[in-house]
Structures are given as C-alpha cells and as structure tokens.
C-alpha cells in the first residue's frame, strides 16, 4: 500500500484501492442489515470513500450492494478447473449451498433477489453485477468441458447453468431444507448426463 | 348451487362453496395489490365469509394468499397427459411462462416468493399451499412417463422437476427477458435427455 501511495505521486490512493474500500464497507452493511442497509450515506460513513466518489462510480446503491456481494463471495464461489467437470461442479455447488445455508451471505442474497422482484433498479443491478458475471463463470467452465468433449458440442451451456445453479436457487428460495448433499449429487449428474 | 343449499338443510352454504368464495376474494386482492394486500379483514370485506371462518380455516393470511394463488392458477397450469411427455411438459411450461410474464399472476407470485425470503410464515405457507402441491403435479406426470419407460427407472423425478420448473423460475426471477420459446425447448430437451 505504501508503494502504491508513493506511486500515485500526490498522496491520492489508487482507484482500485478506493473501490475495494467502498465494496468492503458495502458488503459489511449488506451482510449485517440486508440490501436496505446499503445506502450511499452509510457506505460513505463506514469507509474512507466520499459520497461524491460513490455517486460517480455506482449508478445506484443497489448496484453497489450487488457488486459488493459478487466481490465478497467470489473467493468462496471459485470454480476450480481440475479437468474433472463433474467433481469441479459438485465441489463448487457444495460451497455455494454452504454459503447460502450457513452464512450471512444466504439471507443477504435472498434479500437482494427478493428486492429485485418489486424494484427494477435492483433487478438491473443484480443482473449486471452478480447474475451475469456468475453466469459467465459457470458458462466458461462448461465450455472448457465442451472443448474437452465432456459435453456435446451443440448443447447450450447457459441452459446447463440454469439446470445446475438455477435449480439449486429454486430450492434455496422455496425449500432450503431440501438442499442436501444427495440432492446436489443428483443435480450435477443429471445435468451432465442431459448435456452429453 | 340451489341443490346444495337445499341439501345443507339449514340455509347454511356448503363448506366448499364458502372456501371458494374466500379463495376467490383472496386471489383478486393478491393479483391487484400483491401479498401485502391479502389480510383477513380485506378478504372478509370483499367476500361473504366472516373473519371467524377465515381464522378457523387458514392459520395466516399468507396461507390464504398462497392457496388462493394455487387455486386460481391451477386451470392455466394444468399438465395434460397425452402420453408424449416432451410435448406435454413443453406445453405446460409455455403456459407457465406466459402466466408469469404476461399476466398479473407473475408479479403476484414473484411477490409471494420475495416475501417468503424474510418471513418464515410466508415461506411455510408458500411451501404447503403452492410449491409442494405443484411439485406433486409435476412429479406425478414424470412418474407416469417413468412407468412408460420414457425416463430411467432410477431417476429422482423431483430433481427433474427442479431442472425444468426450478431452472425456469430462476430465469423468471433474475432475467425474465431471457425466457424465450427456444429457451423452454432446450430446457425440456436437456432435462429429459438427462433423465433417460
């Protein structure tokens, strides 16, 4: 950090660091208070980032909340590529279910999805900063498997994304108690069999 | 109806008819005002059913709203069994997507699911009166297909339910614009291929 400060030359922090500070503060507020707790004022008050900067970088507080969630959950939701697509998907799906069922991230994301149902700005923010970036990560992993011949060439990988994560989301939103390890096994197996 | 009144012997309406009256009123309120609009008071005021009766039959206003939604949407969501499981699923899924995207039932159900994310009573009501009854209908159709040999014997039909309707719900909740006829075709095809 000292090196970065020195590099900036005028004592101003690099943009990346300021962004990370704002996103960290937004993630803390989101996990503690839900999406309604993420406002420009509160993020400014609990970070070193000014409201002017927040306004400049995020078109809405919901966009800040959605991007904060994506950034904060990215390490846990990493999709490692070992070449064994079934094992890799199953491992990631297990981590995803754990995050949703056994951490404050679960209520936070459920709250974001809920808020998106009656607020188009939240829906747009959620799509842009969380749903589509996660879709791209899942789709890229499935495309690599497709190139290795583990999935049929003609299969739409985004449909497979829905049949793994979308199906899991549906249970997490409507019957969370039924998301068991056996369920996750069956989900991955049947989705991959359907895509072969 | 006259015959039923005569049969009841004391001028009291048959229970089925009273239930239907309450559910009709609750469905109207739900479609017009969302789940928050369905209260015992308003259902009593816009039907011929007393609050005492409503309290007796439904443990919460959310239970009344969820059952009202199930009952009101049942005709549109009928799953006809012609013996061609792919065509039958595709037809029902098309009707479901139409209902969600092009009728007041869409915002109403999205609102119910949203409310369930922060209110356990709404979640329980939604599970009991809508999610599980719809699951049973989808599962029964898939089991008949399984008995005809169209699905493998070992397949968990409830996982297939998630991979068709759950996947579709995920898009309807997060990226409704992407629910196209081509998407629904691919969803049914890949889910059935995975279950063969």
Supply the CATH architecture of the largest domain in chain A.
Orthogonal Bundle
Number of helices of chain A: 10
Largest interface: A-B, 41 and 40 residues
Outline the biggest β-sheet of chain A: none
List the main descriptive attributes of the protein structure presented here.
disordered N terminus, mainly alpha, 73% helix, 10 helices, 196 residues, Tetracycline Repressor, domain 2, homodimer, elongated
Describe the fold and architecture.
Two copies of one chain form a homodimer. With 196 residues, chain A is mostly helical. Chain A folds into two domains: 2-69, Tetracycline Repressor, domain 2 (Orthogonal Bundle); 72-195, Tetracycline Repressor, domain 2 (Orthogonal Bundle), CATH 1.10.357.10. Helices cover 73% and strands 0% of the residues of chain A. Chain A is built from ten helices and no strands. In chain A, helix 6 (85-102) runs parallel beside helix 9.
């Amino acid at each position: 950090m000292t090196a970065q400060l020195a590099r900036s030359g005028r004592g101003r922090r690099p943009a990346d660091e300021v962004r990370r500070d704002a996103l960290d503060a937004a993630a803390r507020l989101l996990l503690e208070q839900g999406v309604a707790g993420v406002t420009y004022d509160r993020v400014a008050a609990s970070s070193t980032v000014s409201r002017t900067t927040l306004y400049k970088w995020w078109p809405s507080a919901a966009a800040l909340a959605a991007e904060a969630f994506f950034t904060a959950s990215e390490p846990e939701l990493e999709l490692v590529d070992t070449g064994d697509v079934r094992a890799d998907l199953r491992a990631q799906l297990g981590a995803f279910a754990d995050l949703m069922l056994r951490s404050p991230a679960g209520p936070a994301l459920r709250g974001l999805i809920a808020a998106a149902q009656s607020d188009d700005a939240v829906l747009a923010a959620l799509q842009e900063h969380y749903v589509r970036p996660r879709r791209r990560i899942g789709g890229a992993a499935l495309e690599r498997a497709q190139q290795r011949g583990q999935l049929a060439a003609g299969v739409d990988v985004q449909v497979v994304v829905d049949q793994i994560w979308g199906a899991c989301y549906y249970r997490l939103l409507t019957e969370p108690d039924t998301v068991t390890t056996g369920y996750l096994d069956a989900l991955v197996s049947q989705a991959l069999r359907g895509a072969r």
